[in-house]
């Protein structure tokens, strides 16, 4: 099963990605150049990623006392990715980039996530460098960002701490000015950092010359104490090895020490670490603390960090999606080849008849169609959001603003929905395999384990839900919600004009009305604690409604050519409307009445 | 968190288990003797099981070329269990048993599943020996069953084959008479078996003196060919080592060879094997084939094997349930101790305020209450079914027949419902732990992996669903369904009389009507293929309705003492009615209209 026809359909038939080349920034591009990028990524993923997906699961990163040891395949995958130019694909030509639309970049990266989601966490390096391009000084861009884009350095994002995961306002890492003249360092105002950072992906390894840590820390206020809350947070570049203004290693090791590797349920190709900053293991330049260079203004750290949040969350959603599709393709292949049992009904009663392949059983078909419906729908959503990023970057002022606002509303869904439902798809893929799916001889159990991460990192399900119901649907007096509603109406109008889609158009109209009503009812009392008590069921219902809309919009673009592919997508869309969308009633009911069964229960009663 | 108060409440306050001692078979028993059994099992589970649950996960069984190597803790757990007398707890006093009610046996075994579900698969040994007690000859009982009950031998169930998992009619293992006079062997008619058996738990190990395999195989018909279908299947005892009529090992190894260990996602404390019978690796007594002794009549193998099916499925459901509760207890403990973030609302806006423990967050409460609702509800269901087994065994003729019929209808739910929803509970337990839940430093990821087996073994979800909708709700013209309906009505009447439970009584009335209507609508066309196309959504809706009934019945027995425990259970019941039961509408809709979106989709469209 190849991903390519699905990507081609979504990119070109549905999203009309080739029209992006009409925009000045992408004027050198065409469908041909987009296809060339897709071809390259598909090939590298097939050759350097897919064959090693099980290997990176069984040969987990380990620390030998000096170095973190990774399989050779990890280095090869990481190099091949860097050499493809994908690290800097979105950058300007004069920065060495391709000025590739984000839509195409996201589509191309899907091949890697499908082949081996954890072998090469290039996402963080890109996010890190992109952030520096926006908020860093010219020297910081030249020294750090450029060397991340060319693959010499890799990057991390150091936000969480052992005692502060979802709660960044409790970051305790301190940054103090590094002596007199600290402000005059050409790499940026120089500080000394002390603290611990937890869950740092790729925090320690030997894959590149250097690691550029982007670290959130607090500069003490005039009273010497850290400023409470997120306002006190600043952002620093803390290189593992110190560099000069030309980006050359000075030979000095910075005081960033590996305190431990996290041993995970899945996603084992990516090293995950606890790092100690300034613990004194690698004393540097005669003072205590790890050397860090301020990025942007003091106390603006979170704002800088969140700049890349939408894209990072779209990337997480895409990873979850591709795991879902990877499981689907494996299950489909198995179902087409595994003989077992006989169909229900008269023909099935003949025990002497040969067994049929399990794809002929209705329940196996149901499990496969559910996976297709979740996975393909989620991919469409992710690419739709990626397209919004491009409009935000290159559209006219109003279009860009609208795209930005729509992204704010859709991003929690783009991140959370595939994390939940493509995980469910992976469970169904195991189920299709029966006992074999429970063994490590088949890939599906690993997909399921890998995918379980996605509801946790980059903001848990609960955080996404509170972001959606607490902030996104209310911001600018609900204008994001109205914009989304207008998009739904456009789709509904197109669908209603086609007799074959009229039922779904009506169902979507009704579902959206339920969502709006629940949103209003939740906030009618004006009490955040009660309004948000059922934020997760709200997120689930909102997500299902968004996916129903995406599927209907896709269906409106489907060729009426009677092809098997079109028939399959139409069935996946109908499955979603018939089996999935009706679930929203149960979720929204608790939201609308601010059900407080859980909220009110005292601790001792659990 | 201790399981004991919950068990005591369900056993004594709700099911009034001490009344079982009024029955002649259990007349020597009392609450005191029941409690003594529970005490012993709780202690052994705490000392010999729980400390080694992670160990048996990391030190998976391996084959050194001669022997299967297991951790020493596995042997210790297995011996402690045998020495407790629990292997023969249900047996007659003059067989060395305790004549313990199954209800109490099931409750006592819950401690082991909670502590380490896979370290000691005593279930199969018991099932094997119980089957021989019913269907074996006096010599077979004395030689094999008795030595399984006393722990000298262990037992397996060899049904599946690599090409025949769910489809037993395709069993290809052959059994041919072992020469002249084969019928006169004192251990039973002697055959030679040739074939491969897959997914055989505890198929090879050194924990006991001998392994008693119970093997399904086909005796060729007069034409020399195996009889097609399940009618051709016979049942054989195939000991790993041959024994004499006194149960002493003769020193001869039988031709049962380990062909491979299955490497699983979880449940790794239990060895799972592919066995070759009669491949010639251990030639025995000068002819080809493994020596096996017929149990019962030829061609009656499946009937014999299915005799123990209800109890085995209740045991699987109980395992799934206890994994769900194990995750809940771990998550509850974590939530009570982990500080993170601040509550929503005005009080939460003060960033300088200390962090709260996460159990104070509404969404964490929701995730905990869901786990409690799934896990405690499932345990109640399993014990209810166990109680039916006791009535079936020791009740008057009519009561026994009714209990048997109710068990037929409820067993697919008792097996499938906890497998699905206590797995979901385990996922929520991971989510409560955040990033820590994704690491192997906390137990919850293992519970989730272990629990994923339960939707697969002992009849997959799909098989349970077809059993329920295709057979159980229709057998004896729907009398099982009517009996269940009558039980629901009794509960509804009791609940309706209490103002605090009137809403739930009405909701259950409505839900049951929906189930009945969908059952009828599914079969209205009389086409099995269409009726059963949505058997799994039917199973899900039926299961949720049964659980709602169980919870309401439990609530009717709850003391109005205002205790925290009673308050918690009432909330868990209400959670189920408010958050869970409303889901059935979406599931039943596709059943009632025989939705054929999946069934009709041709293979090439996937």
Spell out the blueprint of helices and strands:
2 copies of one chain form a homodimer.
Chain A lengths: L3 H11 L16 H19 L3 H6 L3 E2 L4 E2 L2 H12 L18 H14 L6 H14 L2 H12 L3 E6 L15 E4 L12 E12 L8 E9 L14 E7 L1 E3 L5 E5 L2 E6 L10 E6 L12 E6 L5 H6 L2 H29 L24 H33 L2 H37 L10 H8 L9 H12 L2 H22 L5 H23 L3 H4 L3 H22 L7 H17 L3 H9 L14
Parallel strand pairs in A: 3-6
Antiparallel strand pairs in A: 1-2, 4-5, 5-11, 5-12, 6-7, 7-12, 8-9, 10-11
Question: Could you describe the 3D structure shown?
Answer:
2 copies of one chain form a homodimer. The first copy, chain A, has 606 residues and is an alpha+beta fold. Chain A has a domain of 155 residues: Butyryl-CoA Dehydrogenase, subunit A, domain 2. In chain A, 51% of the residues lie in helices and 11% in strands. In chain A, the strands form 3 sheets. In chain A, strands 3, 4, 5, 6, 7, 10, 11 and 12 form an 8-stranded mixed beta sheet that branches. In chain A, helix 2 packs antiparallel against helix 4 and helix 17 packs across helix 19. The relative contact order of chain A is 0.08. At the A-B interface, helix 10, helix 11, helix 12, helix 13 and helix 17 of A face helix 10, helix 11, helix 12, helix 13 and helix 17 of B. Chains A, B: It comes from Pseudorhodoferax aquiterrae.
Brief rundown of the structure:
The structure is a homodimer of 606-residue chains. The first copy, chain A, is an alpha+beta fold.
What labels describe this entry?
606 residues, Butyryl-CoA Dehydrogenase, subunit A, domain 2, flavoprotein (chains A, B), globular, FAD (chains A, B), homodimer, Diverse_Acyl-CoA_DH (chains A, B), eight-stranded mixed sheet, alpha+beta, 19 helices, 12 strands
